[in-house]
Amino acid sequence: MGVCLDETELEKAFVVGEPQETRDTKISFRRMQESAGRWILTLFVALLAVGFSFAYLVWQAYYGYVAGVLTVGIALAFVADLLRTTFTISLSWTALLAKKPVLPRARDDHRVALIVTFVPSSEDAAMLESLLQEAQRIDYPANQLEIFVFDEGDGGVVNPIIQRVNRLPGHRVQRISRHGQRVYNQPKGRFEAKTKHGNINAALDKIWRHPEVYGTFDIMMGLDPDHIPMPEFARRMLGYFRDANVAYVAGPQSYENARRSVVARLAESQQFVFHTVSQTGANAARAPMLVGTSYAVRMSVLQQVGGIQPSITEDMATSLAILSRCNPATRKQWKAVYTPDLLAHGEGPATWGAFFKQQDRWSRGAIEYVLSGKLLWNTLRMWRNPLGVMHYNIMMSFYGIMGVLWLLAAANMVVTAVWGPTAIAVDPSHWAIFYGWVAFFQITLYSVMRRYNTSPYEERFSYGIYGMFMSVVSAPIYAAALVKTLLRRPVGFSVTPKGAKASGDSLFTFRINIMWAAFYAAMLGVAISLGHMPLASMSWPIMGIAIALAPAVLWRCELHAQRRALPAGDGAVVDRLGGSLDSQFEELMAGQETVPTSTRRPAALSVLT
């Protein structure tokens, strides 16, 4: 049993509608809120959210505090709320700009290389084989599309898979590897060892140098090995390249294992803001981000920018490198398209350790890119597209601001614990009412945009609560990433373990969370011992402890529930699962043999009628 979409889910996944016959080569867009009434509703809620946020800032600055007392604590609180208001403004702005493209019918004359990166030590071979079997069924002329596995291993894992897959009808599969080749395994740069960008660039260099062996291609499409493409994957992306100035097309990610894994379900919901709001908002600027899976990019553009950019978040860096340059043929700036069509179904992190590793890599990459000055340099080169410049600066600041907010809260906790909350001269009930309205309209705006969520795997009427929760509990990870970046701690590319390669969690997984919980508990103890913690102020350290420990508590509750459900003596199996609510657990309950999730994918993505 695997990925199956019924008619309702398929309609939800294909957001942009049917391909259109058109002679116009320029891509046109429609508002996500197709009716004027819904757009006006979004505008109304956005204005209320921003208005109340600003009003709260003014009220706090002029009426909430006693001047001259604990100015450090006051400044910290004000800066934190100013940053929070920035988030509200950016969400409101992108929600109002959100657009989806009109899909032109794809031509069959593009030569396409579909590439799949694979790391045998971290990724599941059975998962790769399932992907290749599905990729062979992609609806596109067989002589125009070839599949490549960019293998980081010696071929012992991948070669037998390719031999089996090539016996089946469909597109041909080839393997390219840099294993054991020093020229393609450098300490830094384009061909950096043990990095995704190094792997892709090495394989592309071979393709470009030896077209007589591998062929020549116009478009490169990319998938991670856990993403199963739908048959429409090529035709619903390639149509946008009718516009000569479209450099790349990006698609959304969705976690099929969200139906079986608690962590994947929460992580799936967290992606909503980026894929449904931020990326569709970027369509207004023709500048969405190139995501590292489910994408298509012109080969000529990659050659122009020197391949995939060296970074632990190579997709983001490559996006800015491309969008800051011009098409040499037309002398117009390159642009991009984001299609909200869900054309590939992936697997998300199924354990807290995998999720934390993923979030750490994304946040480190974004923060380093900002602090290194590369963001400033590339956005200055995008001066022809001021809307795109504004969008990228807002989007790239997310992880850094979340980290700063967490550290500001900790600093304010120290000030309050040592010197007391004497700076505050406001009735807590008044504060609760005012801040409550601010939070209400922010959540309302978030919920209004949930209507356009394309994921078929999230529960209906969830209102994105899971995603909000994951963003909050990830704050300690973002703070740690910010500190490590400022201290210039070395960082390397890490693959998020998937399928049978995923390992379980332990208390060590939550070491950062436990450290922060201990910090807030210590500050609470100091404040109580000094008499600086009235009842109304105790909510802040208690909230900090709750946020820090929430992932560990969920993990333990999940393990406890599984142990109670299993027959006596099978508790060790739960430890191996690491708290993942996948079908391995269901099969154990049925007394069947445990089989890795990835080996049970179907031969095709089917529509149930």
Automatic annotation (TrEMBL):
<protein>
    <submittedName>
        <fullName>Glycosyl transferase</fullName>
    </submittedName>
</protein>
<dbReference type="GO" id="GO:0005886">
    <property type="term" value="C:plasma membrane"/>
</dbReference>
<dbReference type="InterPro" id="IPR050321">
    <property type="entry name" value="Glycosyltr_2/OpgH_subfam"/>
</dbReference>
<keyword id="KW-0812">Transmembrane</keyword>
<feature type="transmembrane region" description="Helical">
    <location>
        <begin position="396"/>
        <end position="419"/>
    </location>
</feature>
<keyword id="KW-0808">Transferase</keyword>
<feature type="transmembrane region" description="Helical">
    <location>
        <begin position="431"/>
        <end position="449"/>
    </location>
</feature>
<keyword id="KW-1133">Transmembrane helix</keyword>
<dbReference type="Pfam" id="PF13641">
    <property type="entry name" value="Glyco_tranf_2_3"/>
</dbReference>
<keyword id="KW-0328">Glycosyltransferase</keyword>
<feature type="transmembrane region" description="Helical">
    <location>
        <begin position="508"/>
        <end position="532"/>
    </location>
</feature>
<feature type="transmembrane region" description="Helical">
    <location>
        <begin position="65"/>
        <end position="83"/>
    </location>
</feature>
<keyword id="KW-0472">Membrane</keyword>
<dbReference type="InterPro" id="IPR029044">
    <property type="entry name" value="Nucleotide-diphossugar_trans"/>
</dbReference>
<feature type="transmembrane region" description="Helical">
    <location>
        <begin position="39"/>
        <end position="59"/>
    </location>
</feature>
<feature type="transmembrane region" description="Helical">
    <location>
        <begin position="461"/>
        <end position="487"/>
    </location>
</feature>
<dbReference type="GO" id="GO:0016758">
    <property type="term" value="F:hexosyltransferase activity"/>
</dbReference>
<feature type="transmembrane region" description="Helical">
    <location>
        <begin position="538"/>
        <end position="555"/>
    </location>
</feature>
